[in-house]
Design goal:
There is one protein chain. The chain has a five-stranded parallel sheet, covered by helices on one side. Strands 11-18-12-13-14 form a five-stranded parallel sheet. Helix 1 packs parallel to helix 8 and helix 2 runs parallel beside helix 4. It is globular and about 65 Å long. It has nine helices and 23 strands. With 380 residues, the chain is of the alpha/beta class. It folds into two domains: 177 residues, FAD/NAD(P)-binding domain; 138 residues, FAD/NAD(P)-binding domain. The chain is 29% helix and 28% strand. The site of flavin-adenine dinucleotide has 35 residues, from helix 1, strand 2, helix 2, helix 8 and strand 21.
C-alpha cells in the first residue's frame, strides 16, 4: 500500500511518524512538502521577541529518516482526489490513500496597505524580520490587529500584545507607548471563560486596550491609520498584523473545498472522496486552526490507515481535544485545554501562568522534535 501525505506540517509529520512507528517498511509513505524544514508556530514568537534565533528553530526535513517514509521536497501543482494522484515539480505521484495536510496559506497582500505600512508576523519571514522591526521601534502607538477569520492559533495575538508590553518595558519605552489589540472574537479565548478572564485581567493590569468583535480591513499608509470594518480608524506607529488565511490555491483548484476549506467527517476525517482524508488547518472541521488539533486528527487517520492495511476495523474517532500553552508575559506560561464535541458547546480547562508550565511547553516542543526528527531540541 502507498500513502501520499501532502504537507509536512503538524498534521503530516504526526501522521507519517505514526505510520512508520507501527508499520515500518510494510507501507510506503510519500511525504511531500515545498519547504526544506518545519518551524513551530510558537517559535515564530520566540524569534520575533529575541529569545532565540531563526536558525535554532528550523527543523530540517533532511533529519527525517524513518522506515517506510520518503520525503520529497517539491511544490504540489495539482491534486486529483478521484485518482488520488498529484502533480509536483518533481513529477507525479499516486497512492492508495491520500491525506491532505497542506495547512492555510497566508495573504498579507489581501489587506490593502498591510505590506506597505504594517508588519505581518504570522509567516516565517514576517515573524523573523519582526525582530528587527521591534528593535528599531522607538515607542508610540502599537496596534496588534487581525484582518480576517478564520485565523490560526486564536491566542497568538493576545500573546503578542503581552510580549510587546514586556519588550517595551525592558527597553524603557512603555511609558511613551500605547498597545491596542483588535480581535474579531468577543473574548480572547471564547471556549474558555477562565482563560479569557485571566487574559483580560492581564491586559487591564498592563494598560493594553482590548477591542473585541472588531476587524482591520485596511491600512492607510499616508495617514498611518488602521481602518476597521465598521469604518472606525485607529492611528498607529507600529502595526503588527495577522494576515488573511486561505486554503492553498492547489487545494481550492482540486474540487475538495466547499466555502474555501475542505469539509470532512468530524469523527473520521474522511473527505467526500474514497480513501482521501484531510487534517488540520486546511479543513473546516470546526476546531481552531492550531497544530495540536491537526496532530490529534492525524492520529485518528493513522489508525484508520493501519486498520485498512491490517484488514481490521478502526475503532478510534476524533474527540476534538487540544491543549495550548499561552505566553502570558513575565516569562510565564499558562495552559488551556479545550474540547470541541460534535454539536455541544466547547469545554475548556485553564491552568494559571506558572514557571512549571514554561517547562511543560518546552517538553511539548522537544518531545515532538524527538519523535518526528529523531533528535534532541529545546526551545529555551
Ligand atoms: C504565531 C503563531 C503561533 C502559533 N502557536 C501555536 C501553538 O502554540 N500551538 C499550536 O498548536 N499551534 C500554534 N500555531 C498554529 C500552527 O502553527 C498551525 O495551526 C499548524 O501548523 C497547522 O498544522 P497543519 O498540519 O494543518 O498545517 P501546517 O503545519 O501549516 O503545514 C502545512 C504544510 O504544507 C506545505 N504546503 C502548502 N502548500 C504546499 C504546496 N502547494 N506544495 C507543497 N507543500 C505545500 C507547507 O509548506 C507546510 O509545511 C501558531 C501559529 C502562529 C502563526
Amino acid at each position: 500500500m502507498r500513502v501520499l501525505v501532502l504537507g509536512a506540517g503538524f498534521g503530516g509529520l504526526e501522521l507519517s511518524t505514526r505510520l512508520s512507528e507501527q508499520l515500518g517498511d510494510d507501507v510506503e509513505v510519500v511525504l511531500i512538502d515545498r519547504a526544506d524544514g518545519f518551524v513551530f508556530g510558537f517559535s515564530k514568537l520566540d524569534v520575533m521577541f529575541g529569545r532565540t534565533t531563526g536558525e535554532a528553530v528550523q527543523h530540517s526535513y533532511r533529519d527525517l529518516l524513518k522506515p517506510g517514509v520518503t520525503f520529497v521536497q517539491s511544490t504540489i501543482r495539482s491534486i486529483d482526489p478521484e485518482a488520488r494522484r498529484v502533480e509536483t515539480d518533481a513529477g507525479s505521484f499516486d497512492g492508495d490513500v491520500l491525506v491532505v495536510a497542506l495547512g492555510a496559506d497566508l495573504h498579507p497582500d489581501a489587506t490593502p496597505g498591510l505590506l506597505e505600512a504594517g508588519h505581518e508576523f504570522y509567516t516565517v519571514p514576517g515573524a523573523f524580520s519582526g525582530r528587527e522591526v521591534l528593535e528599531r521601534f522607538d515607542g508610540g502607538q502599537v496596534v496588534v490587529g487581525v484582518t480576517s477569520t478564520p485565523f490560526k492559533c486564536p491566542p497568538a495575538p493576545s500573546e503578542t500584545a503581552l510580549l510587546v508590553h514586556d519588550l517595551l518595558t525592558r527597553r524603557g519605552l512603555r511609558d511613551r507607548s500605547q498597545i491596542s489589540l483588535v480581535m474579531p472574537l468577543g473574548r480572547p479565548i471564547p471556549p474558555s471563560p477562565e482563560a479569557s478572564a485571566a487574559l483580560l485581567e492581564a491586559f487591564a493590569e498592563r494598560g493594553i486596550d482590548w477591542h473585541p468583535e472588531r476587524i482591520v480591513r485596511s491600512l492607510d499608509p499616508g495617514r498611518r491609520v488602521a481602518v476597521l470594518a465598521d469604518g472606525d480608524e485607529m492611528p498607529f506607529d507600529l502595526f503588527l498584523g495577522v494576515p488573511v488565511h486561505r486554503a492553498p490555491q492547489v487545494v481550492q483548484d482540486s474540487g475538495l473545498c466547499v466555502d474555501g476549506w475542505i469539509p470532512v467527517d468530524e469523527l473520521t476525517l474522511e473527505t467526500a472522496y474514497a480513501d482521501v482524508y484531510a487534517v488540520g488547518d486546511v479543513t473546516s472541521i470546526g476546531t481552531p486552526k492550531a497544530g495540536v488539533y491537526a496532530e490529534r486528527q492525524a492520529a485518528v487517520v493513522a489508525e484508520r490507515i493501519i486498520a485498512r492495511h491490517r484488514e481490521t476495523t478502526a475503532s478510534s474517532t476524533y474527540d476534538g481535544q487540544g491543549t495550548c500553552y499561552l505566553e502570558f508575559g513575565n516569562d510565564r506560561v499558562a495552559r488551556v485545554e479545550v474540547t470541541f464535541r460534535n454539536g455541544q458547546a466547547p469545554v475548556g480547562e485553564f491552568q494559571a501562568p506558572s514557571d512549571r508550565l514554561v517547562e511543560d511547553k518546552a517538553d511539548f516542543g522537544s518531545s515532538r522534535v524527538r519523535r518526528w526528527f529523531g533528535r534532541e531540541w529545546s526551545n529555551y
